[in-house]
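Work Package 4 report. The design task specified in the project plan requires that, given a folded chain encoded as structure tokens, an amino acid be chosen for each position. We show below one input record used in the internal validation round.
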């Protein structure tokens, strides 16, 4: 016998609405013979649609689930985590961040504020209008516009960076934009060193080290994830999407079972690495505003029980001179795409937030017992 659902490490995020509706339970599905008797934590299951099912009260921060075949005495084990947020939360994350930092470095003797940078001015405008919170994943270096690396950026704006840390955070993405899939075959040491180089710089010019990030192209091994964990990363976003052949992709080293857990519940804590993984829902630069709304409605229909949504965009499409091999990829409706994603979230009951608003990464109980 075994747990079909939930797999070990699922994190169930409760809201006030869910609690009021009596949804503070774990829906359990157990594979066992139909002619046997099965319980979970002593509660009798019912055989429905090919498996044993029961709802177990989610009455602990870390709830151990023990399924027992009362006919044979065989047992199966799983565990889930309980999270809480008063209302559903959305976050807008930004990948490939570096050009805005290059501009600030170039103008740091002239700018009186980081928000004189046009890109950050856009983010502040959206924050002031909607309350939106942003998470930006950045590179260490880039060759564009004459070249740039993070040590060139002064710490003269540290106080201002810290003053907006409640709605805009920075974290590691990769050493550079190229090559693509830089960490697919990277070892623990390589990932750790690249991550540390960026995190050290963020700590220098901003004053904190982030615990949440997205690895460039969202592919690496369990050892690569351990390298991130060694550097202080505790939650890792990936696309968790399908390629044109229907195969799972951009989900680190997740199996299909783990992929489905992330998509269905949003947060899943990998017992093997202790890393929390969660999915991006829509990449805003991939479709026009009207399609963004359709895409998000589809995700909402497919995964109705989640309490967190991440909408993602890449920085470079903001710029009129963004080209690859002489082909322009500039998106004149860049801001409209951001607004489309934000407005859909607000219209569907989500409030602005960051992952740290839901998960306390300093909570010692979040460390998986060994």
């Amino acid at each position: 016998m075994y747990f079909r659902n939930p797999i070990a490490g699922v994190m169930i995020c409760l809201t006030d609405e869910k609690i009021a509706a009596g949804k503070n339970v774990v829906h359990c599905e157990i594979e066992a013979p139909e002619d046997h008797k099965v319980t979970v934590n002593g509660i009798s299951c019912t055989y429905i649609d090919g498996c044993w099912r029961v709802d177990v009260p989610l009455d602990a921060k870390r709830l151990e689930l023990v399924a027992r075949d009362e006919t044979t005495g065989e047992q199966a084990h799983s565990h889930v985590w309980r999270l809480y947020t008063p209302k559903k939360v959305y976050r807008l994350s930004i990948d490939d961040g570096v050009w805005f930092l290059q501009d600030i470095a170039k103008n740091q003797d002239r700018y009186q504020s980081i928000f004189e940078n046009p890109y950050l001015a856009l983010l502040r405008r959206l924050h002031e209008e909607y309350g939106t919170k942003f998470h930006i994943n950045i590179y260490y270096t880039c060759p564009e516009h004459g070249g740039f690396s993070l040590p060139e950026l002064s710490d003269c704006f540290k106080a201002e960076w810290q003053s907006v840390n409640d709605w805009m955070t920075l974290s590691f993405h990769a050493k550079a934009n190229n090559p693509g899939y830089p960490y697919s075959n990277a070892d623990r040491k390589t990932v750790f060193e690249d991550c540390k180089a960026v995190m050290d710089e963020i700590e220098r010019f901003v004053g904190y080290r982030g615990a949440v990030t997205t690895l460039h192209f969202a592919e690496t091994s369990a050892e690569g994830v351990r390298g991130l964990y060694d550097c202080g990363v505790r939650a890792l976003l990936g696309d968790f999407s399908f390629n044109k052949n229907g195969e799972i992709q951009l989900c680190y080293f997740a199996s299909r079972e783990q992929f489905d857990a992330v998509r269905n519940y949003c947060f899943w804590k990998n017992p093997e690495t202790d890393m929390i993984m969660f999915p991006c829902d829509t990449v805003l630069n991939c479709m026009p505003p009207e399609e963004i709304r359709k895409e998000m409605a589809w995700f909402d229909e497919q995964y109705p029980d989640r309490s967190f949504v991440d909408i993602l965009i890449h920085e470079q499409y903001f710029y009129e001179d963004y080209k690859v091999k002489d082909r322009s990829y500039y998106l004149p409706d860049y801001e409209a795409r951001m607004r489309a994603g934000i407005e859909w979230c607000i219209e569907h009951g989500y409030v602005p937030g960051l992952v740290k608003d839901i998960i306390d990464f300093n909570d010692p109980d979040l460390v998986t017992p060994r």
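The chain has a mean pLDDT of 96. Validation will be extended to a larger panel in the next phase.
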